[in-house]
Amino acid sequence: MNTAFAKHIKLTGFALVLLAASLSGCRVEREPNYEWLPWLNYMFFSSAAETNTANTVFKNKLTNQVPPAGTIPRGFTPLHFTADDAGRTAAGEQLVNPFKPDEDTLKRGKVVFTTFCTPCHGTTGAGDGPVSKRGMPGFPIGAADNNAGKWPDGYLFHIVTYGRGVMPSYASQIKQEDRWKAILYLRTLQQSAKAAPTP
Ligand code: HEC
């Protein structure tokens, strides 16, 4: 047998043994009382701690730990703007929409816009949602020559995030990425409104 081939067989055999070992674990299921490599079995018998129970591992004896100061959730961008005109302007200048208006993004943006914005602003953003019809001003935002059509994405993101005047903040209801997607969907409304012939 040539040596390269023998080496190949050996390596393959070794890989198969490793694979078998990893698949079977270290306990023989057919013989539950028999433990193979018991010192490796701690994973089978570890006790899972419930979130709000006492715990002896941590100093404060709680399982549910407060994240260290300054920790931010993965994928979350902390915002540092003030909730006023200056903050809106700064957000308009500094924030860039991280998404492109591709099919998936616009599909999601439409869901978000329809759910959260149409009650006041209407399905086309014309300001004629059911809430507006009952007396709350429903600012038109759905045309390119509306203010909202001229302001940059970051400015609109600020309005949705912090609220403005009677419009409440949607920060706790719409996650950041969905806010950006709703804005891209609003842009498509504004583009089609622009393209429509004026009566
Ligand atoms: C509860 C009703 C309501 C909902 C829902 C709502 N808005 Fe508003 N929106 C308003 C009102 C009222 C104003 C005017 C605020 C003011 O007084 O400055 C406004 C203003 C705006 C403006 C600025 C318009 C301008 O020309 O000044 C934008 C942009 C906007 N909203 C976008 C949105 C988006 C996007 C959503 C969905 C995420 C949304 N709004 C959801 C009521 C609402």
Give the topology.
Layout: H1 3-24, H2 85-94, H3 103-116, H4 118-121, H5 130-133, H6 147-150, H7 153-162, H8 176-195
This protein binds heme C.
Structural overview:
This protein is mostly helical and 199 residues long. It folds into two domains: 3-43, no CATH class; 85-195, Cytochrome Bc1 Complex, Chain D, domain 2 (Orthogonal Bundle). It is 44% helix and 0% strand. The chain has eight helices and no strands. Helix 3 (103-116) packs across helix 8. The longest helix is centred in the N-terminal third of the chain and has 22 residues, at 3-24. The radius of gyration is 29 Å and the shape is elongated. The N and C termini lie far apart (88 Å). The chain binds heme C (HEC). The site of heme C has 23 residues, from helix 4, helix 6, helix 7 and helix 8. The site of heme C (HEC) has 23 residues, from helix 4, helix 6, helix 7 and helix 8.
- Taken as a percent bin, the fraction of beta residues is under 5%
| Class computed from helices, strands and strand pairing | mainly alpha
Q: Which fold name fills CATH's third level, the topology of the largest domain? A: Cytochrome Bc1 Complex, Chain D, domain 2
Which cofactors or ions or other ligands sit in this model?
heme C
Number of strands: 0
In total, the number of domains comes to 2
Helix content: 40-55%
